Amino acid sequence: MKYTETLNYLYTMLPMYQRTGPAAYKDNLDNTILLDNYYENPHEKFRTIHVAGTNGKGSVSHMLAAVFQKAGYKTGLYTSPHLKDFRERIRINGVMIPKNEIVQWVENFRINNELWKIEPSFFELTVALAFDYFARGKVDIAIVEVGLGGRLDSTNIIRPEVSVITNIGLDHVALLGDSIEKIAAEKGGIIKPGVPVVVGKKQKETGPVFMDIATKTGSEIFFADQEYKIPYSMQDLSGKQVMKVEKNGGMFFEQLKLDLLGLYQLENLPAVLKTIELMQQKGWLLSDENILDGLSDAAQLTGLMGRWQIIGANPKMVCDTAHNADGISQIVRQIEQTPFENLHIVFGMVNDKEPEKVLSLLPQNATFYFTKANIPRALDEKVLKAKALKFGFKGESYSSVFEALNQAQKKAGENDLIYVGGSTFVVAEIL
């Protein structure tokens, strides 16, 4: 097979949640365990950190990977979904898995599966590929991001050095539960017996859930935001965020730079720092210099995209993959602190979210360009516009992301702001 044929097999022949939604979701680990056994349990051949959460888990995973890379460890990174290239999901030291590696592995799987007769989902097979690649690549450690939920996620066969859970919000309610507490219980499913767990943010609804799971599993639990505080953040001339970091009331880093923009990174960073602290206690050699250098160049080292990413100037154009109520509320806060004359929002969603909840958070002082990504899950742009008009928004609908962005660019002045978001897949198309 050629690489394009391999991708076609992965995207169209296997159930894929990102494209088709809940129909592709598996509520058990049966296929994952079968695949892991057939590949001789590759997940047991390297150390891991497991990262779950509603928002922020991708940023936390990339920041951790950057620090380990700077410390000289051969570092695997597994994340999802990808934005531009399937290979973004699987990296070693920031370098994407080679195309020929994917082609050969998938071809071998298809041959072997004539005997195995497994019917994996896209995600199940991708996890198996990643773990096998990391094992054969002899990584020192892999940062593994949960795909969806935690308890039944295909990544949840690992026994990590540390489990990390970022903030919890209402998302994927049809699969994970219709309350914060139920969703927290699913995310908390990554907590393993005797493995310390770092929770990024102590929330009223989720704190007791995580503490109960940790007590039952004998896992030490830490709420990172109770120890690490970031009083302020500003942007320097190079475009990086500069932060003062305190720990337990005292100075920790007087000036920490981060090349990931967005004020929400101030909520993600405590989880990163607490995880690093626990890893240091386990004997991993991670110096202050490694931390500062890694975080300063995190996006560059790991290839992270789509987090308050500036993609144009005059007018300023920004995209972000935030796609649920918690994420969008952070984006609105960021927009409020961004100078502009007029605001233009290119916006699309998927059809298994709750658009009314998200739309109710968006600013009224904007011109909207409602659109849809080119995937089956995309919410029809006319339906999205009709729902938005009930909230008093003004704007038109466009059948493609490119058309919507093109119209926004035509109408925007050089001192205006164009924001592109609402769905990971909308951002993927413009990148």
TrEMBL record:
Question: What SUPFAM superfamilies does UniProt report for this protein, alphabetically?
Answer: MurD-like peptide ligases, catalytic domain (SSF53623), MurD-like peptide ligases, peptide-binding domain (SSF53244)
What Gene Ontology cellular component terms go with this record? cytoplasm
Q: Which residues form a coiled coil?
A: none
Which molecular function term from Gene Ontology is one that the record holds? metal ion binding
Class of the enzyme per the UniProt entry, highest EC level: ligase
Domain named Mur ligase central: residues: 51-273
For this protein, what is the EC number? 6.3.2.12, 6.3.2.17
Give cofactor(s), names only. Answer: Mg(2+)
Please name the pathway.
Cofactor biosynthesis; tetrahydrofolylpolyglutamate biosynthesis; Cofactor biosynthesis; tetrahydrofolate biosynthesis; 7,8-dihydrofolate from 2-amino-4-hydroxy-6-hydroxymethyl-7,8-dihydropteridine diphosphate and 4-aminobenzoate: step 2/2
Catalytic function, reaction form: 7,8-dihydropteroate + L-glutamate + ATP = 7,8-dihydrofolate + ADP + phosphate + H(+); (6R)-5,10-methylenetetrahydrofolyl-(gamma-L-Glu)(n) + L-glutamate + ATP = (6R)-5,10-methylenetetrahydrofolyl-(gamma-L-Glu)(n+1) + ADP + phosphate + H(+); (6S)-5,6,7,8-tetrahydrofolyl-(gamma-L-Glu)(n) + L-glutamate + ATP = (6S)-5,6,7,8-tetrahydrofolyl-(gamma-L-Glu)(n+1) + ADP + phosphate + H(+); 10-formyltetrahydrofolyl-(gamma-L-Glu)(n) + L-glutamate + ATP = 10-formyltetrahydrofolyl-(gamma-L-Glu)(n+1) + ADP + phosphate + H(+)
BP-aspect Gene Ontology terms? folic acid biosynthetic process
Keywords, in A-Z order: ATP-binding, Folate biosynthesis, Ligase, Magnesium, Metal-binding, Nucleotide-binding
Provide the Mur ligase C-terminal domain boundaries. Answer: 306-423
Pfam name, any one: Mur_ligase_C
Which PANTHER family does UniProt cross-reference here?
DIHYDROFOLATE SYNTHETASE-RELATED (PTHR11136:SF0), FOLYLPOLYGLUTAMATE SYNTHASE-RELATED (PTHR11136)
- Annotated function: Functions in two distinct reactions of the de novo folate biosynthetic pathway. Catalyzes the addition of a glutamate residue to dihydropteroate (7,8-dihydropteroate or H2Pte) to form dihydrofolate (7,8-dihydrofolate monoglutamate or H2Pte-Glu). Also catalyzes successive additions of L-glutamate to tetrahydrofolate or 10-formyltetrahydrofolate or 5,10-methylenetetrahydrofolate, leading to folylpolyglutamate derivatives.
Family stated for the protein in its record = Belongs to the folylpolyglutamate synthase family.
Q: What is this protein called?
A: Dihydrofolate synthase/folylpolyglutamate synthase
Organism field: Maribellus comscasis
